[in-house]
């Protein structure tokens, strides 16, 4: 058979010109993606931004064409099309093309069911989806989908992500605009130039077109950040457009975004607070010695008394309630909790500010993308007299005053000072030394087991995350969590008794005192005992397979772990071999171990730290070097010998 191009195959088969083209397309895609159950023959979106009657009409036409390459592709027999208040879905058409000897037969989908798309973490969500099933999905058949979605506000253009759960033969994203529209666009995460771009004019419209071919499927990998951190995608927004009355700014700069945001909170504090809210604030103020203490106590009151419940209901997803309403209801989302903090501090005579911010799920900055793509969260900000910024996120109810929630570390905060003024500040990334877990144990040999007692302490984010675990655990599960936290030695570790203190006091370390035993941990050979004092072997052989892993690794927070162990030397034994210490000062992972004989005991200490929030793929080799050194250090054993 004459060899023909892949693009030609797509054109031929889409036109149903015969069995030869279908056969060649199937063979080409099967050879290109042998391990995938199906492939997008073509996937496209066309975003139209059209000026009508001095306003913008915005809609997207979506088209998908999937060729099934294996009999086990039933997982792709069901389809979903998502919509929301801001994104109304219309005109859904779906069908299966069933290959029958030399041609396709169409079988259309007729039953589309509208469902509420309730996220488990959201109390009320106005998003929805249409669900349907493709008939006769099997090897060699194709499923096709088309629909149009109308965007109610041009500010919410989501852009386009090229990577998907299936490989793609051809992918395209096109923006079609009226010539009066001033458009910003940028391709991110495409260092190798996979995405091809062209700009042209046709029929009185401007066209911006991005295309790619033969894109592999996106593989799920543990601890990966949001895909927007690493997959090729287009971000775009309308800066302004011209009308007969003049220029209309949409998102020409950050000023436009801020003034739009501020319109949602302007006037929230104009009404007098309720007697209940005033009473709460007056009591807090009377119990506080200074302004900073007032802020701390207001923050803690909101954490303890307002139930976080997420709402996503049209503009309600952007507009908070006032403080009186939230105080009365005793629940609210992030915007409501931030609004309540600001209202309470305002009553107390303390200035604070509502603040828009994105969590670490979003990789963008306000200076780069002044659109709603940047943020998905709201907090309050207090600026102390000494210039220190306090980022108050009451949705994180275990986070102590002075520590931002872990999910906003390193993110830009848009702090609304007043109607016309704002400031952008970067939330600090908390250093590893402030997130500390210490563990001190005294152990001795008893028969064929090790018995001991220990004390652990958690501070910073180590305490915060531990607090969430303890909160969520049922009574019987607390012991299991504590065992996971302090377990050591082997799977024969047994926690005999424990006591947890200060877990609900945000300003004090959580402390755990415990007794334990570990069966069959040490070896006895002749008159020698071999004991490995590295009872905690965190990250042992935790190598990253650089040949396979394609995505960065994300970490909740930087931290340090300090361990101290005292082993009582058994009567009748002397130290035959004391392992040397080891040290590695890695950029991402580091450690230091020390051994010392002292007063009839062997004292072992270890410091371990993890020092990254996002590890890029070009840092994997450094990580593996540090893991290799750590794993070697873990192999060292103490040798005791009978006198």
UniProtKB/TrEMBL annotation:
Keywords assigned by UniProt?
Signal
Signal peptide extent: 1-21
> InterPro entries annotated for this entry?
Papain-like_cys_pep_sf, Transglutaminase-like
Domain Transglutaminase-like, first and last residues per copy: 280-392
Do you know which Pfam families this protein is assigned to? Transglut_core
Going by the entry's taxonomy, the superkingdom of the source organism is recorded as Bacteria
**Stated name of the protein:** Transglutaminase-like superfamily protein
């Amino acid at each position: 058979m004459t060899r023909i191009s892949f693009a030609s195959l797509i054109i031929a088969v889409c036109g149903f010109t015969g069995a030869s083209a279908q056969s060649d397309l199937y063979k080409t895609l099967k050879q290109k993606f042998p391990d995938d159950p199906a492939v997008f023959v073509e996937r496209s979106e066309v975003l139209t931004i059209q000026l009508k009657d001095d306003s913008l009409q915005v809609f997207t036409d979506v088209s998908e064409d999937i060729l099934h390459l294996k009999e086990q592709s039933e997982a792709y027999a069901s389809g979903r099309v998502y919509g929301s208040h801001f994104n109304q879905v219309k005109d859904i058409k779906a069908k299966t093309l069933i290959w029958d000897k030399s041609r396709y037969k169409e079988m259309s989908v007729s039953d589309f069911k509208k469902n509420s798309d309730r996220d488990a973490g959201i109390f009320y969500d106005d998003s929805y989806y249409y669900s349907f099933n493709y008939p006769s999905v099997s090897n060699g058949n194709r499923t096709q989908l088309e629909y149009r979605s109308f965007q109610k506000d041009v500010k919410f253009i989501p852009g386009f992500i090229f990577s998907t759960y299936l490989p793609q033969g051809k992918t395209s994203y096109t923006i079609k605009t009226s010539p009066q529209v001033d458009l910003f666009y940028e391709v991110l995460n495409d260092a190798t130039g996979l995405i091809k771009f062209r700009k042209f004019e046709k029929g009185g419209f401007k066209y911006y077109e991005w295309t790619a071919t033969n894109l592999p499927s996106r593989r799920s990998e543990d601890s990966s950040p949001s895909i927007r951190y690493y997959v090729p995608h287009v971000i775009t927004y309308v800066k302004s457009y011209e009308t007969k009355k003049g220029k209309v700014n949409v998102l020409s700069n950050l000023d436009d975004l801020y003034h739009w945001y501020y319109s949602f909170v302007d006037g929230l504090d104009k009404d007098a607070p309720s007697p209940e809210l005033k009473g709460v604030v007056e009591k807090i103020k009377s119990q506080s010695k200074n302004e900073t203490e007032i802020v701390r106590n207001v923050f803690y009151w909101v954490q303890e008394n307002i139930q976080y419940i997420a709402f996503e209901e049209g503009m309600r997803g952007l507009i908070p309630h006032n403080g009186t309403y939230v105080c009365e209801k005793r629940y609210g989302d992030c915007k409501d909790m931030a609004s309540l903090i600001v209202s309470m501090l305002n009553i107390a005579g303390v200035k604070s500010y509502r603040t828009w911010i994105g969590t670490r799920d979003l990789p963008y900055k306000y200076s780069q993308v002044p659109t709603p793509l940047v943020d998905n969260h709201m907090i309050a900000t207090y600026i102390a007299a000494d210039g220190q910024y306090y980022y108050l996120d009451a949705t994180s109810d275990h986070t102590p005053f002075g520590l931002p929630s872990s999910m906003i570390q390193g993110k830009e905060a848009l702090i609304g000072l007043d109607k016309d003024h704002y400031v952008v500040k970067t939330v600090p990334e908390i250093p590893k030394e402030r997130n500390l877990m210490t563990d001190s144990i005294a152990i001795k040999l008893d028969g064929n087991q090790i018995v001991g007692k220990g004390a652990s302490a958690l501070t910073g984010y180590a305490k915060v995350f531990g607090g969430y675990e303890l909160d969520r655990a049922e009574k019987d599960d607390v012991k299991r969590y504590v065992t996971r936290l302090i377990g050591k030695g082997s799977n024969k570790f047994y926690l005999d008794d424990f006591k947890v203190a200060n877990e609900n006091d945000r300003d004090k370390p959580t402390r755990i005192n415990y007794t334990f035993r570990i069966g069959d941990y040490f070896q006895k050979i002749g008159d020698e005992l071999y004991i490995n004092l590295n009872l905690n072997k965190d990250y042992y052989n935790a190598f990253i397979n650089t040949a396979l892993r394609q995505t960065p690794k994300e970490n909740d927070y930087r931290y340090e772990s300090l361990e101290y162990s005292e082993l009582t030397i058994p009567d009748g034994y002397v130290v035959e071999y004391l392992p040397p210490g080891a040290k590695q000062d890695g950029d991402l992972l580091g450690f230091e171990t020390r051994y010392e004989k002292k007063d009839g005991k062997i004292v072992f200490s270890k410091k371990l730290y993890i020092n990254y929030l996002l590890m890029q793929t070009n840092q994997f080799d450094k990580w593996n070097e540090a893991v290799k050194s750590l794993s070697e250090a873990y192999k060292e054993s103490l040798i005791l010998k009978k006198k």
